[in-house]
Each structure stands twice: as structure tokens, then as C-alpha cells.
Amino acid sequence: MLSKDGGRIKKLIRIEQIKILNYTPFRILLLLYVVFFTLGIVIYPLIDKEIPVISLSDLFRFPDVWSFMTWVTEPYNILLALIIIMITTNEFSNHTFKTQVIFGLGRKELLSQKLILIFLLAVFATILVGITTISLGLIYSYKLTFKIAVESMWYMAVYFLSSISFMTFGLFFALTIKNTALSILSFIALRSFVEPVLFLILRKTEVRWFLPMRATSRLTPLPNLMEIFQSKMDSAEPIEDTAMEILPKGLPIWQNVLLVLGYLSILIFFSYRIMNKKRLT
Amino acid sequence: MNILEIHQLSKSYKAIKAINKLTLSIDQGQAYGLLGPNGSGKTTTLSIITGILKQDSGGFLWFGENPSAKQRIRVGSLIETPHFYPYLNLEKNLKILCEIKKQEYTDIERVLKETMLYDRRKSKFRTLSLGMKQRLGIAAALLGDPEVLVLDEPTNGLDPEGIAEVRETVLEQVDRGKTLIIASHILSEVERICSHLAILKQGNLLASGAVKELLSKEEVIEFASSDNERLLKKLKASKLIKEIEQENGVLLALLEQNITSADINNFAFNNKITLTHLVSRKKSLEAQFLELVKE
């Protein structure tokens, strides 16, 4: 049974491989994604010299570098989600979902193809973040022990989850809206417009933490910058940003993770439902 | 062996009933034609049995089993216009389909050569002309040498040469014992290729069965002689004709079953009447089809 499933997964991977490796927009977007990361390693140190008082290199030290990097690179997930949306809506506009079904691919497998792609892209993204973070950490940390280095490494796992969730959101939009331009617009609108507005409207309640996209991006929240910079400044009392209400506390991390996993399950469930019922023209 | 069994299949699009309780049975080795005017439900039926569409009610069995992707692998299909990845070349497109069909990539060369597309194998799909795209669709349907071919208007967009090639390819498959399900409104082609027919109109099945039975064996002949009056009287008395009438100096007769024009010729000779004109007119499939559909 296991080997049969493994063979099936490998078959789906080979099929997606042929599709995406020859698809120029995919290669460009992925290249862009990698470029953003490498630029980061180069740019941050340059900015560092410009800002007085605070030393940015504090952020690049272990263990805080983990939370900082995962927070900074989280928006790049939009690029990845865009890739997924494009690839999926293309299958509709090229009518290639129909062709694949006629030739003997199951409806479920049409979806599995994309989910596997999401998984692989998330792995790629996480590894990239890992490499970048470790590099920066090694460069900027002066007090380095193995324990300090891996202390906050769990941020990688959380980053992986946020990456998968974001792309799955994109997939769901693509499956329901089918049109490339509309899907991308609605997706970006939801994240950058609708949810922030809802967040404001619901600012007196706890519910606002449950908005799906916000929950996903808060998996890798803004690190406690004040605390980080504190270590350099001599201050009698540590200042907490929650006390100043600059940044509200939100949900504890494990609750957030469960919430996002919940959303993920719902998305995947309904995605399969859609694929099974749909008329593939 | 029963290849495909359709039972009480129905599908409506909002208020329009596309197919209405369709029941059909197709056996191995049959070349089964689905005939009907546009909108009769041919494409809807083929879409349902190839998994594109879900029916409202009724069911169907492939190879005696409930339908699933596994059986579709054994069936080579071309439904409406063939759709491939425009930015991939022919070879890569077929590689993807080979993976789905669980076939070795070596099969690609065979089907491309069969449809004269081999030297374009590195061209991107979007650079192909309409006729070539159609040929690729047929090539793809032949991948894996499937036991069954399901073709929806396979000669669509092809020039006469292309149509002849398709006919040849299809007939070769039939000769090799493959089962063929073909939807077409080009009656002359269907007449040449098919052993069985189903005639659809507005989603309903008008007639189905072997072509030999559906096609009337009745021959209509037009003839003239040195003595039409006497010939007319003699023929009316004989058991050779069903109907006969005279028009503009020419006799038209609908012959009885299994009577041929040669028999009429002999009859006239035996009665010492010479024929000056004899033309045989078999009632074509087209005429019968139009008649049936008009009702």
C-alpha cells in the first residue's frame, strides 16, 4: 500500500515538474523570491550604519535572529501564493484539468498535485530562510554556543506552517474564482484590505485574532524589538510594548498554531469538495 | 465482453434537458457511432462517460465496473477540441499524458509518427495550426494502445486529406479489434466506419442497433424501357417490387427486400422487354437520418 501511494506521489511530482519547470513566469517568480533573500543578507548590514542609537546587528544575533528573520520574510509568502494561484488558474483557462481527467487522472489527484507542489515550495522556502538566518546569525553573533543558536529554531517549523497555509489559501481562491486576475486581486484584497479593516472594526473583541490571514501571518509575529534593543541600552526597567499598547498581545503561539491548522483543514476539505463536483470544461 | 453500459442516464443544464434517460450498450470490437444534430446530447454523453461531467441521474459501467480514473486509463479519448499546455512542446505534453497513462515515453514517437507530427515534436503547442492540434489530440488518444477509443468529432478542423487519414487510422484500430465510440455529424464517414449506431435527438434515443439493420436494404431504381406500360403492369403483378410509379417517361420502383436491379433486368429480359435505362439509387444514410430526425 505504502509503495503504491509513494509511486502515485512520485508520478504526480513528475507531472507537475514537467509543467512548472518549463513555465517562464514560475521561473521568474521563484528567481525573484531567491533574489529577495540574498538581497537581504547584503542590504541589512548596509542600513545598519545609517540608523543611530539602535544597532540593527542586535537583530541578527542568535537567538533573536530566528524570530526577526521569520517575521521579515513572512510577506514573501505572497509571492509563493501568487505562483500557486497562477498555476492553478492556468489549468482552468487552458482546460488542462479536463484533459488530465479524460486521460485517467482522478479528481482527487488534480488537487493532490497542487498540494504536493505547495508542500515542496514550503520546504524550499523554509530551507532558504534557514540558510539565510544561520548565515546572518553566524556573522553577527559574538557570544555563540550551540544552545543559543538552536534555541529559537522552532520558528522554522512555524514559518513552514505559515507558508503552507498561505499558499493553500491562494489555492482555494484559485479553485473557486478560476480567473487569474480576479483570484490574485481578491487574494491581495483580503490580506491587505478586507482583513485589516475588519480587524479595526472588531478592535474591542477577541474575535479579531481569528481572522484567517491575520492568524497565519501572526504565526511569525513582530519580535519584541524593544526587548532586543534593550540589551544594548542601560535601562532600569524593561519596557514592554504591550504595556504601551503599541502592539497588542494577541493569541499565545500554540493557540495560533491550532487555529491555523484548523483553517488549513477546512480549506483542504472544501477544496476536495469543489474538485469533485466541478464541471471541467 | 461488455465495454460500456449506460443506464437511464440523464443530465440537464438548468431548464434544458441535455440527455433524457439514455440507455445504451456497447460490446467489444464494435465501432459504435453516435449520430445526431447539434444539441442532441452526443457531447454531453461523452463528457459524462469520460469523467468531465457528473450526471443528474442514471449510471454507467466501464468494463463492467463502476466508473473511476483507473478505467479511463484504458480508454483513449478526444473530446471536443484537444487542450494541451500551450507553452510546452508536443513531446513534453505527451510525456505528461504518458505519466497519467502509466506508459513508457517511447510510445510518444510511435503516436507522433502515426499522425505525421514527429518532426514538430519540439514545437510548442501554441504554434500549431488547428489541423495539427486536432492531429495531436488523436495522437494522444492513441497513447498506450488503448482497448477503447472515444472520439468526439475527430475530423473537426481537418482538410480532406486529414479526414482521410483519420478514417484510415480509425479503421485500422477497428481492424485490430479495438472498440470505437465515435460521435459525428458527418454521416458519410460514420456510414463507412461504424458497425453500430445510436441516433439521438434533443437528448432522446431515437434508434440504436447494427448499421445493417438500421439502413434499409430497400433499393430504389429508376429505369426506362421500350414498353413502359407493359413492364409496369407485369411488375405490379410480380412479387419483385413494393411500389412503382411512372414519371416523365421513366419508371421509379421501390424493390422488395433482397431484390436487386439485376433481378429487374432479368425479369424484363424474360418478358422480352429491353431496358434502355437503369440506375440504382440506394437510400443513403443521410436521407434516412434526416427523415428520422425530422419526425
Short description:
The complex is a heterodimer of chains A (281) and B (295). Chain A has twelve helices and no strands. With 281 residues, chain A is an all-alpha fold.
List keywords for this structure.
heterodimer; A: 281 residues; mainly alpha; 12 helices; 0% strand; B: 295 residues; alpha/beta; Rossmann fold; Alpha-Beta Plaits; 2 domains; six-stranded mixed beta sheet; four-stranded antiparallel beta sheet; 13 strands; 31% strand
Tell me what the structure shows.
The complex is a heterodimer of chains A (281) and B (295). Chain A is globular and about 60 Å long. With 281 residues, chain A is an all-alpha fold. Chain A is built from twelve helices and no strands. Chain A starts with a helix and ends with a helix. Chain B folds into two domains: 213 residues, Rossmann fold; 76 residues, Alpha-Beta Plaits (2-Layer Sandwich), CATH 3.30.70. In chain B, β8 and β9 form a beta hairpin. The longest helix of chain B has 16 residues. The model of chain B has no long low-confidence stretch (mean pLDDT 88). Chains A and B meet through α1 and α5 of A and α2 and α3 of B.
Number of strands of chain A: 0
Helix content range of chain B: 25-40%
The strand order across the widest sheet of chain B is: 5-6-7-3-8-9
- Gross CATH architecture of the largest domain in chain B: 3-Layer(aba) Sandwich
Distance between the termini of chain B: 34 Å
Most extensive chain-chain interface: A-B, 26 and 31 residues
Q: What oligomeric state do the depicted chains represent?
A: heterodimer
Q: What is the third-level CATH name, the topology of the largest domain in chain B?
A: Rossmann fold
Detail the poorly predicted runs of chain A: 232-247
Total strand segments of chain B: 13
Number of domains of chain A: 1
Give the proportion of residues in helices of chain A: over 70%
**Radius of gyration computed on alpha carbons of chain B:** 24 Å
Strand proportion of chain B, as a percent range, falls in 25-35%
Number of H/I helices of chain A = 12
- Gap from first CA to last CA of chain A: 33 Å
How many helical elements of chain B?
11
